[in-house]
Design brief:
The chain is 46% helix and 17% strand. It has 884 residues and is of the alpha/beta class. It has an eight-stranded mixed sheet with strand order 12-22-21-14-15-16-17-13. The protein has an eight-stranded parallel barrel with strand order 24-25-26-27-28-29-30-31, surrounded by six helices. A five-stranded antiparallel sheet has the order 1-2-5-3-4. The two termini are 46 Å apart. The chain binds phosphoenolpyruvate and magnesium ion. The site of phosphoenolpyruvate has 11 residues, from strand 25 and helix 32.
Length: 884
């Protein structure tokens, strides 16, 4: 049975809509040809052919070879040239072309068709340019040998170096036709030798082998790494483009180059590109000669230059997006080899999208759908200069975005002191605890060896817009806390490192940074997003600065004020510890008495910053271990070992054991006396908080004529009864305050849904709740059964690398699993109370994909850290637009 599948498309058979079959490059070439842009003639072997071969141990599907033969015949007919002809030889390039661009990851062969038989005709057709012909030939053997036949690169490089040394010259361009002829001969001998005499000289056979090599390159290691990093499926395969060669290296009337329809770094509509005369594309890439600014081409090749400008406009207009193009000029004639939507910086993405709306090229909706919400992060924080190239010394979790350069500090007091004097400091800790907050606050960045995306260090840093790389694998902080060893290098106090909190990378020394750029275009995108989104956007914040920042960035309220964060300040910790460790109610009451006015002052600040907008204050949710001294302190343990009086040898052994024990130690997974559980044991705590909230609200109302909308939230409820009890305590205290003051404000009492049981019984819990707020951090922790403080440093990283899980569920909501709990909670809650207000305040509230999910799940709002508010606004608008 013959296979009827069409595996090969001529250039004029394709168009942009066939991208999944023809790959990005093939579809674009066909589309350019269709709209009258000059492209060299070609045919494309489909991704489907590659996949079929891949699924059959590399064996080509029946009929593919014949289809390639026939397409080649047609190409020869159209061009009037013949592969292997001694008079009018066709030369072709063979290039990969995946559906999603994977620049430089797969293989390419150029100049196929040149041989002993055809090299003379190639020279003759190039006005007798012998040097050009032999240069093409030796390049072909090198490239074909390496890429298709697997000959080691050094075999050719050594011969080339020898040839230059023999002649006493430094550059390839100093070799003349005779040198290149001799070199070609040498290359052929070497290739044939390397292949044990099996070098193929038949150009048709070479073509088949080259196509096959491109198929195979789909699975080479660098392509695999790239696919994994960019979430591209292995099942897609690559297309292969076979295209007539055009030559930019045929003399000074020929050239090659790259250009963009707008500046990809700023987005400005201006000439941007580079070119080289008498060169082939690889010369530009290899950096052997320095390319010239495109503007200079007007003097050298004026006609081609003006045609190029017109073509750039045409392609941008047609594709309605910033284009990244490659061109070649062969003897003054322009050919476009490629166009694609250009990669651009975040700033360029925003500016070009806004400009294109102004120019009438695209609509507002298209502009919103074009800007990747996560890219906005880069504009809100300093970022590492995109031109900076260096290898990271370690890569941890991208816990809080932005970039930071600073001198290392190993304890919070030192960081606070140096940071307070204006020094740029990077605080390095095994993990951070509340005791460190004063150091974190004044640092440029925080680096921890332990902890995850929702760990304390990450949440606090994100809230304050401080760069954080958490859980950096394998970094060792010495027991005295004065040095950190990363790889085989040790860094001490005052040494400089750079953190990239957007990628998790850490670099040695000071990388150049670019400042944040919140400008008019940025504001415009936000304003457009607000026109389209249905989902409300609030912020998680618990002090005046963060709340004000959030409001400035467009937050419509506070969705979560974590009162325990207010307890973490160094001057309050003693009272908080007293409150927790109190052995009787009297002691506790005394501690609470100290705390109440402090809490009230905190609340006044927030209510004042958010006047007229809702503020959800969560009653104390204490991860107890965060408030208590660490009893497993390593130095104590070592001291104890020392007291046993063992030999030095024993001591060293046990110290090592201790280090291992520590590296395996897991934090309390925070399932103990957390959330309302402490408040159930000690009702005086929520009572104090409710009083502080109401006193603050009344005070702000009195002082400023307006206060925030008060929403009091009970954390970690799993049983309706808990909420009823807590609600009672709150309402009694609140009403008592109203009575004493002789004034009232509006308030509601709701709960977090952050434990599966609460989602499962949301219909019951809703009876006692005015609103729900989903705590997706804990819902992820408990729904999946993984510790938010430990899992990311441990197996979870492996799970993501090995694609057992597609994403870190603490970063982007596990929609299939935990997402069901959210959907169920909303649905069940609303069966009891149809209009029940629901929101999300876990870290997922600032993750674009999760935000889209929350939109679909019918929530009323998301709440995220202040700096993610613009991202959430855009993501929410995109969700609404996609739904239309
Ligand atoms: C949550 O669990 O999602 C939440 C917002 O609460 P926290 O992170 O403070 O536990
Ligand atoms: Mg929680």
């Amino acid at each position: 049975m013959t296979d009827q599948t069409k595996y090969v498309y001529d250039l004029n058979e394709g168009d942009a809509s066939l991208k999944s079959l023809l790959g990005g490059k093939g579809a674009n070439l066909a589309e350019m040809n269709r709209i009258g842009v000059p492209v060299p003639d070609a045919f494309t072997v489909t991704t489907q052919a590659c996949v079929a071969a891949m699924n059959n141990n590399g064996e080509w599907p029946a009929g593919l070879r014949e289809q390639v033969e026939a397409a080649l015949d047609r190409l020869e007919e159209r061009t009037g040239k013949v592969l292997g002809s001694t008079e009018n030889p066709l030369l072709v390039s063979i290039r990969s072309g995946a559906v999603f661009s994977m620049p430089g990851m797969m293989d390419t062969v150029l100049n196929l068709g040149i041989s002993d038989d055809t090299v003379g005709a190639v020279a003759a057709l190039a006005d007798g340019n012998e040097r050009f012909a032999w240069d093409c030939y030796r390049r072909f053997i090198q490239m074909y040998g390496e890429v298709v036949e697997g000959v080691d690169q050094y075999v050719f490089e050594d011969a080339l170096t020898e040839a230059k040394e023999a002649k006493g010259v430094a550059n390839d361009t100093d070799l003349d036709a005779e040198d290149l002829k001799a070199l070609t001969k040498k290359f052929k001998e070497l290739a044939n030798e390397a292949l044990g005499g099996h070098w193929t000289t038949d150009p048709r056979e070479q073509l088949m082998r080259a196509i096959n090599a491109v198929f195979l390159s789909w699975n080479n290691p660098r392509a695999e790494v790239y696919r994994k990093a960019n979430g591209i499926s292995r099942d897609l395969g690559t297309a292969v483009n076979v295209q007539q060669m055009v030559f930019g290296n045929r003399g000074e009337t020929s050239a090659t180059g790259v250009c963009f329809s707008r500046n990809p770094s700023t987005g400005a509509k201006e000439l941007y590109g580079e070119f080289l005369t008498n060169a082939q594309g690889e010369d530009v890439v290899a950096g052997i000669r320095t390319p010239r600014n495109l503007a200079e081409m007007e003097d050298v090749l004026p006609e081609a230059f003006h045609e190029l400008l017109a073509t750039m406009d045409k392609l941008e207009l047609h594709n309605k997006d910033l284009q990244d193009m490659e061109f070649t000029i062969e003897d003054r004639k322009l050919y476009m080899l490629q166009t694609r939507n250009g990669k651009r910086t975040a700033a360029a993405a925003v500016k070009s999208a806004v400009d294109m709306v102004d120019e009438g090229l695209i609509t507002k909706e298209e502009a919103l759908l074009r800007i990747n919400p996560s890219d906005l992060d880069a504009l809100l924080h300093p970022a590492i200069d995109p031109n900076f190239k260096a290898t990271a010394i370690v890569k941890g979790l991208p816990a809080s975005p932005g970039a930071a350069v600073g001198a290392l500090s190993f304890n919070a007091d030192d960081a606070a002191e140096r940071g307070g004097k204006g020094e740029s400091v990077i605080l390095v800790r095994y993990e951070t605890t509340p005791d460190d907050i004063h150091g974190v606050m004044v640092s440029q960045g925080v680096l921890t060896a332990h902890g995850g995306m929702t760990s304390h260090a990450a949440v606090v840093a994100r809230g304050m817009g401080i760069t954080c790389v958490a859980g950096a694998p394998g970094i060792k902080i010495d027991p005295k806390g004065e040095t950190v060893t990363i790889g085989d290098k040790t860094y001490g106090t005052g040494d400089t490192l750079t953190l990239n909190g957007t990628t998790g990378e850490v670099f040695e020394g000071a990388a150049p940074l670019v400042p944040p750029s919140i400008n008019e275009d940025f504001e415009q995108v936000g304003a457009w997003a607000d026109e389209y989104r249905r989902l409300g956007v609030r912020a998680n914040a618990e002090n005046f600065e963060d709340a004000s920042k959030a409001r400035e960035l467009g937050a419509e309220g506070i969705g979560l004020a974590r009162t325990e964060h207010m307890f973490m300040a160094a001057d309050r910790l003693p009272s908080v510890r007293k409150m927790i460790l109190a052995t009787n109610e009297e002691e506790r009451a005394a501690a609470l008495e100290e705390i109440l006015p402090l809490q009230q002052a905190d609340f006044e600040e927030i209510f004042s910053a958010m006047k007229g907008l809702p503020v959800t204050v969560r009653l104390l949710d204490p991860p107890l271990h965060e408030f208590l001294p660490n009893i497993v302190d390593q130095s104590l343990l070592v001291q104890k070992l020392e007291l046993t009086g063992g030999s030095e040898e024993d001591l060293a052994k046990e110290r090592k054991l201790l280090a291992q024990v520590k590296s395996l130690h897991e934090q309390n997974p925070m399932l103990g006396t957390r959330g309302c559980r402490l408040a159930m044991l000690y009702p005086s705590i929520p009572e104090m908080q409710a009083r502080a909230i109401i006193r603050a609200a009344l005070a702000v109302q009195e002082r400023e004529g307006e206060t925030a909308g008060i929403e009091i939230m009970v954390p970690l409820v799993v049983i309706k009864k808990e909420l009823e009890v807590q609600r009672d305590i709150v309402v009694k205290a609140v009403e008592d305050e109203f009575e004493k003051a002789g004034k009232r404000v509006d308030y509601t009492v709701g709960t977090m849904i952050e434990i599966p049981r609460a989602a499962l019984t949301a219909n019951e819990i809703a009876e006692a709740a005015d609103f729900f707020s989903f705590g997706t951090n804990d819902l992820t922790q408990t729904g999946i059964g993984i510790s938010r403080d430990d899992a990311e440093a441990g197996f979870l990283g492996h799970y993501v690398d090995a694609e057992v899980m597609s994403k870190n569920p603490f970063e982007s909501l596990d929609q299939n699993g935990v997402g069901q709990l959210v959907e169920m909670g909303v649905e069940k809650g609303r069966t009891t109370k149809p209009g029940l207000k629901t929101g999300v305040c876990g870290e997922h509230g600032g993750d674009p994909e999760s935000v889209e999910f929350f939109h679909r799940a019918g929530l009323d709002y998301v709440s995220c850290s202040p700096f993610r508010v613009p991202i959430a606004r855009l993501a929410a608008a995109r969700a609404a637009l996609r739904e239309q």
